[in-house]
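Objective 1b: paired records.
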Amino acid sequence: MTCKELGGCCDKKLHADTFEEIAELSKQHGIEMFRLGDKKHLEAMKKMRKLMTTDEKMKTRLQLKKKAFDALPEVE
């Protein structure tokens, strides 16, 4: 999946075998972009925070992203 597909703003491809792994890669990418002060990523993070204002909204968003991840074809 790309950063953009996970709610970010760039086309960086992240590869993982499980949703938990891709979530961690996405988190690390976000941390890196935060440290670099990347304005586009900071804006995407701000938008994500607005979408996940409650535990229920966060859970729903994660379920939707997991469903999208699970629907992807396996790559060898």
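Objective 1b, second protein:
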Amino acid sequence: MQDGWIPLQCTDCGAELEYSPADLPPTGNEFTCERCRSTRPVSEFIQTQEGLEILESFHG
């Protein structure tokens, strides 16, 4: 399986980040922005539908 990167964006501070699905929690779990420490469900940080699908299939 080829590694993919999921683009994230924090709506609080505007930080644009990329993470491997292995470094993200499963959908519905909390994620904390590394820059401003804002915490919300990881799905609220994911910028694209494709990124959300990759994360869901990774944690299947």
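Helices lie at 49-59. The chain has one helix and four strands.
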